[in-house]
Amino acid sequence: MSIISSDSISTCANCGKGGEGDDIQLKSCTACKLVKYCSRECQIAHRPQHKKACKKRAAELHDEVLFKQPPQLEDCPICFLLMPSLWSGHKYMTCCGKFICTGCVHANLVNGADLCPFCRTPIPGTDEQFMKNYDKRIELGDIHAIYDVGCLYDAGTDGCPQNKAKALELWHQAAELGHVESYYNIGNAYMKGDGVQRDMKKAIHYWEQSAILGHGGGRHNLGVHEKGECNMDRALKHWMIAARGGDTGSLEKIKQLYMEGHATKDDYAKALRAHQAHVDEIKSDQRDQAAAFTDDNKYY
Fold first, then answer.
1. I need a surface site. Which of 9, 237, 244, 295 has the fewest CB within 10 A?
2. pLDDT for 184-220, tens place per residue?
3. Residue 243 and residue 276 in contact, taking contact as beta carbons nearer than 8 Å
């Protein structure tokens, strides 16, 4: 059954006004986009008979966005290979605001350069110097700098006193500007009750925002939640998308679903192939060398 777009509707769903010759401005139902109304009063009056169809279509529209394959990360600006999705696969440079893959960071370090691999600015040697760089980036509206300082307050490191409320304030600020990890961290805070009252509904909302923007961790957590609710098909959808983006934990969850009889052998095979394709795309000798380097101070 095809869905009629509200663009083709010219009359109020309640009173029928707004046809040819009527000088009435109609507004679509913001939740489902299926019908239009000439006034708030008509929308309220029509609600009892419209509620079921509205809720169903709103859920469909939500899932169309939620389960859409998210955009990939950008390429490393030095080696031009796709950036690894894991946080450990790239480094944020506080001097220029660039993300550099750990392979290029490691190569720069091995070559003895105490400079940013991208802008060649000297690497800060103290917490105070790092914070000065962060302050400059924040003044420029750099959302990742805002997020990073939030993480410092959350952990109470690098000269920042532990302050969960301040961390959440900064993450919300960055999230409102579209920062993916901020959405994820806020979701985790609500899930754990860390600095806020525990609220799974809000946790899921923020994880969904992170997943839509391509965060594998947020997508993975949504899959865990759906499995807990016995929604195996939805859990599988989340984990398939996350596995295609390189999330190993989601790949393991799909294997578990297969072993429990909730996913097919073909599902698991597709997940394995997609995950391996991502691994092959981000692989390089430099990155392998960086992964094997275990010095605690390896990235400045």
1. 295
2. 999 999 999 999 999 999 999 999 999 999 999 999 9
3. no
Query: Any idea what the Cα angle at residue 32 is, between residues 34 and 190, rounded to 5°?
Result: 180
**Which amino acid, 152?**
L
Instruction: Look up residue 226 and give its two tokens.
Output: 């759906």
Q: How far is CA 235 from CA 46, 64, 222, 228, in A?
A: 35, 15, 7, 9
Reported residue count of the chain is 300
The secondary structure of residue 91, as a DSSP letter, is E
Buried b (16+ CB within 10 A) or exposed e, 164-176: eebbbebbbbbbe
Q: Collapsing DSSP states into helix, strand and coil, what is residue 220? A: helix
Q: Which two tokens stand for residue 215?
A: 């965060």
Chain segment 263-297, per-residue pLDDT in tens? 999 999 999 999 999 999 999 999 998 888 755 44
**Distance from C-alpha of 82 to C-alpha of 280, rounded to nearest angstrom:** 10
Distance CA 173, CA 144 (A): 11
Instruction: Return the percent helix, strand and coil in the chain, to nearest 5.
Output: 55, 5, 40
73: helix, strand or coil? coil
The model scores a pTM over 0.90: no
